[in-house]
Design brief:
single chain, alpha/beta, TIM Barrel, 2 domains, 8-stranded parallel beta sheet, 15 helices, 16 strands, globular
Length: 369
């Protein structure tokens, strides 16, 4: 099922629109929280609905190991399993597997389970089949994501293998009896920070033909300018009527920078991970609630964001919860960070529709840079 992109407005290269899938649609720009094992840490699917999440990620690698794709399939798919009424996306599992130093050959990647030490092999074909069983609205093709910095030869090999695997994964998806009618499949562009290899990877991925396109292998330690130059190489090539997804980005400066270059979708564990360690995204910038200056602070968590679910409690009380390892503290800060980021992205969307994106971007940079 092609993921159609309806463009509402474009301000420079920044786009506001709607992505239409087989089972629903979502507005862009869109931040997607990460629910690795079918749940965003500390939150339920009802929490996510109340916060206004549109699309939630789940992780193929973890779900295929526990509870197993067959169990998720028998439950009606990941949305039904988690009682989630919104849309879902599963990554291919490649990023997690390659962090485990797997054995790679032309067929696929052999890796050891982090749960029980058993060996498994993931191929482009099995990745597509497993994601069909998991049943997300969008599945990602299996790619090779090298760590950066890396020698050019390593990057070149990853581009070549990613293209070969993408073709195999696409054929499996199209031939699957259920997947192609109820899911969309996105291709992934690799190439490190080498502009020529990025362009080559993009062109080869486009030649295969996917329902949407993602940029992978960035925001992994390279310089910000290198990252953004690589994004521009790819977005210049992707057709205007298809969604563009930057994988693994969630800080406000990063978001305005990639939206400025035509990106529509992004995901990251950053806002939830920060919350678990006491770091709060606020209208005045980032704060650490564990700082001693908040010990007697009776102000709400973020006075500049009155609709925050964390504003029911004082900064002093939330600091106390985090200092004593009370789980309620991490939960409240997680609710706040996601609410704040969803609001940030919605304000960014409004600025694009009102042709005021550049002002929004400059304001963001002034606060967060």
């Amino acid at each position: 099922m092609r993921a159609d992109f309806d463009l509402e407005n474009i301000d420079g290269e920044a786009r506001a629109g709607t992505v239409r899938l087989a089972n629903g649609s979502f507005n862009t720009p869109c931040f997607m929280p990460v629910g690795t094992r079918g749940s965003v840490r500390h939150l339920s699917s009802l929490d996510l609905k109340d916060l206004g999440a549109q699309v939630v990620l789940a992780n193929t690698y973890h779900l295929m190991l526990r509870p197993g794709a067959e169990i998720v399939k028998n439950a009606g798919g990941i949305a039904s399993f988690a009682n989630w009424t919104g849309l879902t996306l599963t990554d291919s599992g490649g990023y997690q597997i390659f962090s485990l130093d797997p054995k790679i050959d032309e067929e696929g990647a052999t890796f050891r389970s982090v749960y029980d030490g058993s060996f498994h092999k993931l191929t482009p074909e099995t990745s597509a089949d497993i994601q069909a069983d998991i049943g997300a609205d969008i599945q990602m093709v299996l790619d090779i994501c090298p760590a950066l910095p890396a020698p050019e030869e390593t990057i070149r090999e990853s581009v070549e293998m990613t293209a070969v695997w993408a073709d195999r994964g696409r054929k499996t998806f199209i031939g699957h009896p259920d997947a192609s009618s109820r899911q969309s499949q996105f291709g992934i562009v690799q190439g490190g920070t080498n502009s020529a290899l990025r362009a080559e990877s993009a062109k080869r991925t486009l030649e295969i033909g996917f329902d949407g396109y993602a940029i992978g292998g960035l925001s992994v330690g390279e310089g910000r300018n290198e990252m953004l130059d690589s994004v521009s190489v790819v977005t210049d090539l992707i057709p205007e009527d298809q969604p563009r997804y930057f994988m693994g980005l969630g800080d406000p400066v990063g978001l305005v920078n990639v939206v400025e270059r035509g990106i529509d979708m992004f995901d990251c564990v950053l806002p939830t991970r920060l919350a678990r360690h006491g770091t709060v995204l606020t209208s005045g910038g980032r704060i650490n609630i564990g700082n001693a200056r908040f010990a007697k602070d009776d102000d709400p968590l973020d006075p500049g964001f009155p609709q925050s679910p964390g504003n029911h409690w004082s900064r002093a009380y939330l600091r106390h919860l985090m200092a004593t390892d009370e789980p309620a503290g991490a939960r409240i800060l997680t609710l706040h960070n996601l609410a704040w980021l969803f609001n940030f992205v919605e304000r960014m969307r409004t600025s694009i529709n009102e042709n005021e994106f550049d002002e929004f971007r400059k304001e963001t940079l002034d606060i967060w840079s």
